[in-house]
Design brief:
Elements lengths: L1 H4 L8 E5 L2 E6 L2 E2 H8 L3 E5 H18 L4 E6 L6 H10 L2 E5 H10 L7 E4 L5 H10 L2 E4 L2 H12 L6 E5 L25 H13 L4 E5 L12 H19 L5 E3 L18 H19 L5 E4 L3 H4 L3 E12 L4 E5 L8 H5 L6 E2 L10 E5 L8 E7 L8 E4 L20 E6 L2 E6 L4 H5 L10
Parallel strand pairs: 4-19, 5-6, 5-12, 6-7, 7-8, 8-9, 9-10, 10-11, 11-12, 14-16
Antiparallel strand pairs: 1-2, 2-3, 4-13, 13-14, 13-18, 15-18, 16-17, 19-20
Helix pairs in contact: 3-10, 5-6, 8-9, 9-10
The protein binds pyridoxal-5'-phosphate (PLP).
């Protein structure tokens, strides 16, 4: 169990010997000690694992793409002040969805050339923040483009505009995470892209790129091939009709990670980038097109493996067919199992090498029968008070979390070179009431 599951955890994860015997540690820091210091549920992020994934993207682009390339981190996967600072240190762009994420980026002092804004229905506030702060807006639809044209006509300088193409094909993943299909809510249809470029050129708008994103958590890059071909066919048409070439092509993000031992080996970042880079370079050569800047937009594959969620078992219960381990987090900090059946694994924090006995169901404290974080996972006998560590918890947990049942969002700790830095304190009872105003008793 231990050897099988360790590759799901951050790259610095080891079993160390403490006064309690063998214990899981990340970055050399025993998890039990961190849980005692910061409480549970607790989210740990290992910088060495983040840096490693970032380096893999950079190296793969440099090795496999003959033109210029770059990485945009998709902030929707996980965003807070420390993550925004890390993105800046990596020299990546940060993709923000709307004014809220842009405010976090502003707190980290990211400059316009480091910021890109997405959104399928950007509000007036989102667009105003994007125009003021970002170097790129990825335009989703005709209405948004017309609004931007209106701003330009009123004298507002615009950042670069990339048009989001809906290529008509998605990657293989859960239906809720597919975005590239014909009837998806995201982006322009291919024929609309031609119109949008013409519309933009007529009005002198800075339309400089094409973007598509076919879905999230895939491990077979094959569907990106026809989408890239379609994009380059469009480029050929646009070059012939308008003399227009995109300076940038972005095939989005979505590369997957392993959540469970059955998902191993970890999907390889280099082979994904090599596939995209080759297809784009060969496609350009075959059509006589100039090589665009290749910008990729990963979220999950940069941050998921770096994150570990730590829970304490509060009670153990046996029902007719199930051994329940009732833990102190779940649906409110990780809605993915309830949302789309995401399948996770876990290890006991102390003596993680114990032999497994029977499958266990890990359920949270929230008032939904769907608040089951992990189903039927082989685990050893475990008692109330013990800790469990859930790997691959860095993406789309905290960013999708809630205050359901009055849950307070967990503390988040950044591990770097043997030091633990609290980067988000645990929410307090006062935080729960911070926005509320009384209806009675105000006079
Ligand atoms: C437009 C866009 N880009 C990038 C991403 C990042 O996807 P992932 O975190 O799976 O890499 C998403 C997520 O769905 C997205 O919608």
């Amino acid at each position: 169990m231990l050897d099988e599951r360790l590759p799901l955890f951050p790259i610095t994860t080891t079993v160390v010997t403490t006064e309690h015997g063998g214990e899981l540690a990340v970055d050399g820091q025993p998890i039990a000690g961190l849980a005692a210091r910061f409480g549970t549920p607790l989210y740990l992020f290992d910088q060495a694992t983040l840096d490693d994934a970032a380096a893999r993207y950079r190296a793969a682009l440099a090795l496999h793409y003959p033109g210029p390339g770059g990485v945009t981190y998709a902030g929707k996967a996980l965003l807070n002040l420390a993550v925004a600072q890390w993105v800046q240190q990596q020299g990546f762009r940060l993709d923000c969805t709307g004014a809220g994420e842009l405010a976090i980026a502003a707190a980290a002092d990211l400059s316009p050339d480091q910021l890109l804004v997405h959104g399928v229905n950007k509000s007036a506030e989102d667009l105003a923040a994007a125009v003021a702060q970002a170097g790129v807006i990825v335009v989703d639809n005709r209405t948004e483009l017309a609004r931007l044209a209106g701003l330009a006509a009123a004298g507002q300088p615009l950042p670069d505009l990339w048009l989001r193409l809906r290529p008509g094909m998605a990657v293989e993943t859960h239906a809720y995470r597919q975005t590239g299909q014909d009837d998806s809510k995201f982006g322009f249809a291919p024929a609309e892209i031609e119109e949008a470029v013409a519309f933009g050129l007529d009005r002198g708008l800075p339309v400089t790129g094409l973007h598509f994103h076919q879905g999230s958590q895939f491990r077979d890059p094959a569907p990106l091939g026809p989408a890239l071909d379609l994009t380059l066919d469009l480029c050929q048409t646009l070059a012939a009709a308008h003399g227009w070439h995109p300076a940038v092509i972005c095939p989005g993000g979505g590369w997957g990670v392993a959540y469970h031992e059955d998902d191993l080996p970890q999907p390889d970042i280099e082979s994904y980038i090599a596939f995209v880079a080759r297809r784009l370079a060969e496609g350009c050569a075959a059509r006589g097109l100039p090589l665009p800047h290749l910008q990729v937009e990963p979220g999950r594959s940069l941050v998921a493996r770096a994150g570990v969620a730590v829970y304490r078992i509060g009670a153990v219960k046996q029902t007719a067919r199930r051994r329940w381990l009732l833990i102190d987090g779940g649906l409110a900090d990780n809605p993915r199992p309830a949302l789309y059946g995401a399948r996770y694994s876990a290890l006991p924090v102390t003596h993680p090498d114990r032999a497994v006995t029977t499958p266990a169901w890990l359920a949270g404290p929230y008032c939904e029968s769907g608040d089951v974080l992990i189903e039927a996972l082989p685990l050893p006998q475990m008692a109330a008070g013990e800790l469990l560590a859930v790997p691959a918890s860095g993406a789309y947990h905290l960013s999708m979390g809630s205050n359901y049942n009055g849950a307070r969002k967990p503390a988040v700790v950044w591990l770097r070179q043997g030091q633990a830095h609290l980067i988000q304190r645990r929410e307090t009872l006062a935080d729960l009431l911070a926005r509320d105003l009384p209806l009675w008793g105000r006079e």
